[in-house]
């Protein structure tokens, strides 16, 4: 009978959890986007195929996709329009981007190789070994004769 009582208690907790989580609604308007899977809203990096081959632009666009994936108020169409706007912008301005990177106005993510400064570190000399002191055994204890009473 105790097993059946525990089972009812667990089922009661499960039903409360189901009721609690069914009350929570998505922030995406389900009416207009009901047939679009959730991953279409979040995983947008697959739309970055026609962008210029620059690590700076690629990193920027990955961050844009992360931000758009976290935006619950835009539809998938609006997010794709935003990505396409960046695509046309970067493709039109690529010659300006190349000129500024090659002239050194914009620093790329890879720093130029620099010479290492000369180290002033000098290791400390090893400590001196401890002095060896011979161990002398103490002299044997001689018992003094005691006066005997006879």
Task: Report what the structure shows.
The structure is a single chain. This protein has 150 residues and is mostly helical. It has a domain at 2-103. It is 46% helix and 0% strand. The relative contact order is 0.08.
Keywords summarizing the entry:
mainly alpha, 5 helices, single chain, 150 residues, 46% helix
Concise synopsis of the structure shown:
The protein has 150 residues and is an all-alpha fold.
- How many distinct helices? 5
Beta-strand proportion: under 5%
Radius of gyration: 40 Å
How do the helices and strands follow one another from N- to C-terminus? HHHHH
Low-confidence stretches: none
Distance between the termini: 95 Å
Largest sheet: none
Helix content: 40-55%
The shape, in one word, is elongated
The helix/strand class is: mainly alpha
Mean pLDDT: 76
Spell out the blueprint of helices and strands.
Blueprint: H1 2-23, H2 38-42, H3 55-69, H4 76-92, H5 94-103
């Amino acid at each position: 009978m105790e097993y059946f009582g525990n089972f009812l208690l667990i089922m009661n907790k499960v039903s409360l959890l189901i009721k609690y989580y069914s009350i929570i609604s998505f922030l995406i308007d389900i009416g207009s986007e009901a047939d679009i899977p959730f991953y279409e809203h979040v995983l947008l990096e697959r739309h970055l195929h026609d962008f210029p081959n620059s690590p700076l632009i690629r990193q920027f666009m990955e961050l844009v996709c992360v931000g758009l994936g976290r935006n619950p108020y835009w539809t998938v169409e609006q997010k794709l329009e935003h990505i396409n706007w960046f695509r046309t912008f970067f493709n039109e301005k690529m010659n300006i981007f190349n000129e500024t990177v090659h002239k050194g106005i914009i620093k790329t993510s890879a720093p130029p190789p620099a010479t290492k400064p000369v180290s002033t570190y000098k290791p400390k000399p090893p400590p001196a070994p401890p002095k060896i002191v011979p161990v002398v055994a103490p002299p044997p204890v001689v018992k003094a004769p005691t006066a005997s009473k006879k």
